[in-house]
Write a structure and sequence with these properties.
The chain is α+β, with helices and mostly antiparallel strands. The protein has helices at 2-10, 13-28, 30-36, 43-56, 63-75, 87-96, 98-156, 160-179, 182-200, 268-281, and strands at 203-207, 216-219, 229-237, 246-249, 256-259, 261-266, 288-292, 300-301, 309-310. Residues 1-11 have low confidence and may be disordered. InterPro entries: DUF6384.
């Protein structure tokens, strides 16, 4: 076998090319090969047929070359047989396609890098900023707000109920900060802010007496159908006569809302006196029901009242 290989390498290149062409011709004439190679004794006949084919093309091919081509076809000498699949073959294929895989891996790496950057920018950084802001709020902003508001309320009033409310809200806020409950701490600050704003308000309660406006009304309470509740409709006006909105709890619903007009429940005698005042000339001469001073929670009334209020009629 080694001798045949050595002999093959010493042959002229032209002879080798002719032998390969013979094999190629035989492969392209599959019917001829199937018929003539069915029996090995017919090699001579096949060679003769091949000689005729080449002569028709104007090519002279020696018998040795034709015989070599027939033997090469039988031995599948010029046929590529792929190697068996295995680790080395797979590694070789990966190496051959290294540029394709390199581009794909590069693209994948770029996508992963971009995704990591986007996650950092849109998720990690905002989360870190929120955590830092929450830390600052819990350790600085809310504690300062609680101390400032509680101190300001104590400085602007000596009303026991107001001081009690301020102390309760301040204590609740401090407790919330100790346990890390930011929502409860914010609620305590909001309560102190509302209390401070309420104490700071100054206004008079004027009975509404404009043409077409309701100055008073009465209701039959659900709990006692034999009774009547009388109300005078008032509005809160600041020093410049501008209406203010104040928190009023509706005794019929239990809901508290910010309103600029509401009904104050009064005894029947007070209601009758104001009605008579209005019926005299259509104007309520004595139209100031009360006034709220700075540092106080409730107005000081200039007429007898029963307590309680309504916000719609």
């Amino acid at each position: 076998m080694a001798a045949d290989t050595a002999a093959a390498t010493q042959r002229p290149l032209g002879d080798l090319m002719l032998a390969m062409d013979v094999v190629d011709t035989l492969r392209h004439r599959e019917t001829l090969v199937a018929r003539e190679l069915a029996d090995e004794d017919r090699d001579a006949r096949l060679i003769e047929r091949l000689r005729e084919i080449y002569r028709a093309q104007g090519i002279e091919v020696s018998d040795a070359i034709l015989a070599e081509g027939v033997r090469a076809l039988k031995e599948s000498r010029f046929v590529y047989s792929p190697p068996e699949d295995g680790l080395q073959v797979r590694l070789a294929r990966l190496y051959v396609r290294r540029r394709v895989w390199g581009r794909r891996l590069g693209t994948l790496a770029a996508v992963l890098l971009l995704a990591a950057a986007a996650w950092h920018v849109f998720v990690t950084m905002p989360s870190e900023r929120r955590a830092e802001a929450l830390h600052v709020e819990m350790t600085q902003t809310l504690p300062r707000a609680l101390e400032h508001l509680a101190g300001h309320v104590a400085a602007m009033t000596d009303v026991a109920d107001a001081l009690r409310q301020a102390e309760a809200a301040h204590a609740a806020g401090e407790q919330a900060l100790q346990v890390g409950n930011v929502e409860a701490a914010r609620k305590a600050v909001a309560e102190l802010e509302a209390l401070e704003a309420r104490l700071a308000q100054e206004y008079v309660l004027r009975i509404v007496s404009r043409p077409g406006a309701t100055s008073g009304l009465w209701r039959i309470p659900d709990v006692n159908q034999e009774a009547r509740n009388y109300y005078l409709v008032v509005e809160a006006l600041d020093r410049n006569g501008r209406p203010l909105s104040v928190p009023i709890t509706n005794e019929e619903t239990g809901e508290t809302g910010m309103v600029s007009q509401w009904g104050v429940r009064v005894p029947e005698t007070t209601f009758a006196r104001v009605r008579a005042d209005k019926e005299d000339d259509g104007i309520i001469q004595n139209d100031i029901l009360g006034a709220k001073r700075r540092g106080h929670l409730e107005p000081v009334y200039m007429m007898p009242v029963s307590g309680g209020a309504i916000t719609d009629w």
